[in-house]
UniProtKB/TrEMBL annotation:
<feature type="domain" description="Nudix hydrolase">
    <location>
        <begin position="44"/>
        <end position="178"/>
    </location>
</feature>
<dbReference type="GO" id="GO:0016787">
    <property type="term" value="F:hydrolase activity"/>
</dbReference>
<dbReference type="InterPro" id="IPR015797">
    <property type="entry name" value="NUDIX_hydrolase-like_dom_sf"/>
</dbReference>
<keyword id="KW-0378">Hydrolase</keyword>
<dbReference type="InterPro" id="IPR000086">
    <property type="entry name" value="NUDIX_hydrolase_dom"/>
</dbReference>
<dbReference type="Pfam" id="PF00293">
    <property type="entry name" value="NUDIX"/>
</dbReference>
<protein>
    <submittedName>
        <fullName>NUDIX hydrolase</fullName>
    </submittedName>
</protein>
Amino acid sequence: MNRNSLLSLLDAYQTSDPEEMKMQSEMKTFVTEHEDCFERTLKTGHVTASGWVISEDRKSVLLMHHRKLNRWFQPGGHCDGDPDVLAVARKEIEEETGLLNFRVDSDGIFDVDIHLIPANPKDEAHYHYDVRFLFIADANEPLIINSESRDLQWVPLSQIEQYNNSESIVRMARKTIS
C-alpha cells in the first residue's frame, strides 16, 4: 500500500454532497502534493482514518467521548506512516472500543472530512484529512474504554445531534439512514 492506493480509493468514491465533494478534491490534492501525508510530523496536517461503526440493525452508531477534545466522535486516529487507511481504521476501532468482532461494510470509502484540530500544548493547530469507512458490529458485545476516551456509547441515529451536531457527524448519520 502507498499513496496511490489512497488516491485510487478517493477517485472511486462517489458523493452527492457538494461540501464533501470539495473536501474530496482538496484531500486528493493534499495527498498528491505531500509524500509524507501519512506522518503526523507533517505540521500543516496529515491523513487520519476512522470507522463509523453501526449496529447490525443499522439504527445505532458507536461513539466515544474524546478525552482531549471533550466531544463525542467516531473512533479513529493517526496513520503514523501506514498508508493502509482501512487497516488503520480497523486498528483504531479495536484500540478505542475493545471491539474485536466487527466487519467492514465495504472496502470503499464511506465519508471524507477535513477538519481543523486546535492547538494544544504538544502540537500547533493542524488539519486532519480523515478517511472514513463503514463497519458493522453487534451492539451487545462488551466495550472497553481506553485512555483516549471518557465513555463509549451506542447512540440511536435519531438522537445523534444531541451528542454531536457537527455537519460531519450528521452527514454520516444521514448516509446511514438513507
